[in-house]
């Protein structure tokens, strides 16, 4: 019982350290053949961070998908520091999905770049500004439940994305910032982040609605478990919506 209470306190506690990472929602294309495309948007939140995300996917062949995305992040609950920033990411993905598949995989290898500004809440003239770049690999296990007499255009799908990400902080700039925090950031400019997500989608012919949860590993040695690393989000995806019109 004592351990359960301790775990609960850790999970609901808010971070007292500067933000050094922007969480990117899981990449799930749902594309099936060459020429398919999709645009999607999502909103996600943790205990103290809100993210808005937009993505575009294009199937350059039956098995390879190009992706570009943009994510904006902003704190809404902080004890000492408030952070906001954005990241643009690009990826090349592999998929073995097609119209007849029930189980399929996706894998995305990507690169991103962005910036973050931290502000001390007790001093509006205290800033930590830095840009960052990241490389990542995300592997998805996907299951489509489009059997049992249900029409193909309307079915549930389940997704398990697992991401490994390396983040490097660049162009560090501090103005009247907390000395201990500045030293911590300068001494630890690189991050290795592991993220596990679970998503459930309901798919129509050209439109998908989804719910996802994600948890990423700590970004600071002072953290153990924090609810700020756990996200829940909603997503909407529009796929190949002009294809049918072009055939007429």
Rg to the nearest angstrom? 20 Å
In CATH's first tier, which class applies?
Mainly Beta
- In order across it, which strands form the biggest sheet? 1-2-3-4-5-6-7-8-9-10
Write down how many β-strands occur, each being a DSSP E stretch of 2 or more residues: 10
Number of domains: 1
DSSP helix fraction: under 10%
Instruction: Give the low-confidence spans.
Output: 3-14
Shape: elongated
Beta-strand proportion = over 45%
Largest sheet: 10 strands, antiparallel, barrel
Describe this structure in words.
The chain is mainly beta. It contains three helices and ten strands, in the order αβββββββαβββα. It has a single domain (2-246), classed as Porin (Beta Barrel). The chain is 10% helix and 56% strand. It has a ten-stranded antiparallel barrel. The longest helix has 11 residues, at 2-12. The termini are far apart. Mean pLDDT is 85; it is low at 3-14.
